[in-house]
């Protein structure tokens, strides 16, 4: 049932053009400017009129929440807070009626996320669930929701669930922004078209597999890794680091690139691989300066760039070119090489990629 792949994780990484497409099917029709999300019909007004959105999640789902924070704020102009469910539930958070809580969970069974929802519900918040597993506890406890429809995810490391979460959250944000009038018609249409094109761009990114395998061989014995990105690619840096540590047991940290000089820069020497997610976007020039700072300290730079980039290939030791897309949608594309990098390194180190030590697919205890 691994469909000819050696591991579920690899199968699920390669499934993403299809799973992202499935997530949009029947919901998005860019040609006609249509975006219909069954689950949000009744509660659309709650989101449109929300004073605040609070996103609660754990792990990879929390990273999807961080990306969503950027586009909900940019497109919908609604303040967003992204919370680790485990912290939120224990610190007497301020929750008011008018607040909308979006709970993100692949399994729909994560104990802390479920408890955070119960707490918010008891204070009168509306709960919107973004789950993958149909009929799961979180899906049932939420007032409304939208499934990610990524299909069963077997590998413990979450891959296709993450890109499907981003797809759903993006559609919700665009739908709300369009109703609120906080996005121009032309930008709205541009993003719908771009969203529809994501599966083919992910398909293209997957063709980098052999190149990434080669890079993995170069770094498989590293003891540490740093992942740096800015803006929409900052949560991608966190996600890349999490994927590597959980399946290859290499210590890795993700940081917003600008934070590097507030501490992590002290770690950089000729032994330190630094993965930059440095695609062409509004923070590109700043990221280029950060690459220079790492180079000056002899760090080994691996850069994810937009195809055709002429500058970074002169600076980085390894360059991975992904297709161009809108910066708000780039995480769905730029995360692909990072999933593959962690996969290959883990396999080369002889790790059990589908069932890493100490981890479970659903964390039903707090
Ligand atoms: C990472 C991973 C975990 C989960 C986290 C939340 O690859 O799988 O960090 O993302 O346990 O799980 P869900 O999304 O099921 O609530």
Automatic annotation (TrEMBL):
It catalyses: D-fructose 6-phosphate + L-glutamine = D-glucosamine 6-phosphate + L-glutamate. GO terms for molecular function: carbohydrate derivative binding; glutamine-fructose-6-phosphate transaminase (isomerizing) activity. GO terms for biological process: amino sugar biosynthetic process; carbohydrate metabolic process; fructose 6-phosphate metabolic process; protein N-linked glycosylation; UDP-N-acetylglucosamine metabolic process. Catalyzes the first step in hexosamine metabolism, converting fructose-6P into glucosamine-6P using glutamine as a nitrogen source. It is found in: Cytoplasm. Residues 43-182, 215-356 form the SIS domain. One of its GO terms (cellular component) is cytosol. Coiled coil: none annotated. Keywords: Aminotransferase, Cytoplasm, Glutamine amidotransferase, Repeat, Transferase. Its EC number is 2.6.1.16. This is Glutamine--fructose-6-phosphate aminotransferase [isomerizing]. The active site is at 361 (for fru-6p isomerization activity). Homodimer.
């Amino acid at each position: 049932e691994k469909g000819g792949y050696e591991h579920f994780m690899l199968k699920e990484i390669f499934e993403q053009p299809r799973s992202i497409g499935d997530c949009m099917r029947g919901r998005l029709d860019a040609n006609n400017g249509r975006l219909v999300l069954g689950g949000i019909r009744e509660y659309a007004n709650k989101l449109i009129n929300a004073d605040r959105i609070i996103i609660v999640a754990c792990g990879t789902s929390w990273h999807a929440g961080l990306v969503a924070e950027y586009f909900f704020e940019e497109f919908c102009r609604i303040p967003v807070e992204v919370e680790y469910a485990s912290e939120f539930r224990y610190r007497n958070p301020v929750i008011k009626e008018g607040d909308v809580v979006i709970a993100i969970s692949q399994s729909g069974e994560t104990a802390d996320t479920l408890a955070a929802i119960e707490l918010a519900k008891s204070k009168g918040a509306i709960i919107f669930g973004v789950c993958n597993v149909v009929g799961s506890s979180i899906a049932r406890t939420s007032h409304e929701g939208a499934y990610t429809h990524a299909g069963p995810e077997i590998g413990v490391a979450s891959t296709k669930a993450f890109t499907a979460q981003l797809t759903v959250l993006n559609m919700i944000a665009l739908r709300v922004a369009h109703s609120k009038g906080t996005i121009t018609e032309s930008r709205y249409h541009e993003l719908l078209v771009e969203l529809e094109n994501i599966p083919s761009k992910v398909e293209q990114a997957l063709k980098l597999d052999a190149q990434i395998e080669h890079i993995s061989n170069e770094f498989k014995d590293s003891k540490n890794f740093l992942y740096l990105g800015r803006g929409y690619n900052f949560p991608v840096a966190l996600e890349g680091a999490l994927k590597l540590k959980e399946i290859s047991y290499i210590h890795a940290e993700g940081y917003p690139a600008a934070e590097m000089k507030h501490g992590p820069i002290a770690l950089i020497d000729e032994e330190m691989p630094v993965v930059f997610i440095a695609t062409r976007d509004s923070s590109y020039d700043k990221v280029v300066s950060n690459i220079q700072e790492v180079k000056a300290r002899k760090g080994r730079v691996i850069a994810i760039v937009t195809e055709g980039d002429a500058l970074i290939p002169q600076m980085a030791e390894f360059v991975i070119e992904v297709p161009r897309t809108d910066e708000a949608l780039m995480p769905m594309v730029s995360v692909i090489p990072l999933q593959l990098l962690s996969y290959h390194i883990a396999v080369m180190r002889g790790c059990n990629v589908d069932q890493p030590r100490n981890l479970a697919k659903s964390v039903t205890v707090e």
